[in-house]
Amino acid sequence: MTHVVTEACIKCRYTDCVDVCPVDCFHEGPNFLVIDPDECIDCAVCIPECPVNAIYAEEDLPADQKKFIAINAELSPAWPTITRMKPHFPDTDQWKDVKEKLHLLEK
């Protein structure tokens, strides 16, 4: 099992989770983070750090977020590793409660 970043992260991309990851399994895209399933050690320390509750253990994923297993696996090799927290986007707080943002994911 692995942990998965879900739709709530799109256009928010808080990076609080990155600082606590002991294995540097997060990768950064233009407006989203993903977890490399081959690097994740399932420690779960990232889950409580996410201000928008976008990270789940794979077995706990809501049914409507299962597609993010494949999205994380697909994008993690293509995107650079992020190992330190970065400043939030200026409009992050405006996006944190928005639902159905998959169409806004920038690859």
Summarize the helices and strands and which ones pair or pack:
Blueprint: E1 3-5, H1 16-20, E2 26-28, E3 33-35, E4 55-57, H2 67-75, H3 92-95
Antiparallel strand pairs: 1-4, 2-3
Describe this structure as you would to a colleague.
- By secondary structure, the chain is α+β, with helices and mostly antiparallel strands.
- It has a single domain (3-82), classed as Alpha-Beta Plaits.
- Helices cover 17% and strands 11% of the residues.
- The chain is built from 3 helices and 4 strands, in the order E-H-E-E-E-H-H.
- It has helices spanning 16-20, 67-75, 92-95; strands at residues 3-5, 26-28, 33-35, 55-57.
- The strands form 2 sheets. It has a two-stranded antiparallel ribbon with strand order 1-4. A two-stranded antiparallel ribbon has the order 2-3.
- The mean pLDDT is 96.
pLDDT < 50 stretches: none
Main sheet?
2 strands, antiparallel
Radius of gyration: 12 Å
Q: Spatial order of the strands in the main sheet?
A: 1-4
Tally of structural domains: 1
Summarize the structure.
This protein is 17% helix and 11% strand. The chain is α+β, with helices and mostly antiparallel strands and 107 residues long. The mean pLDDT is 96.
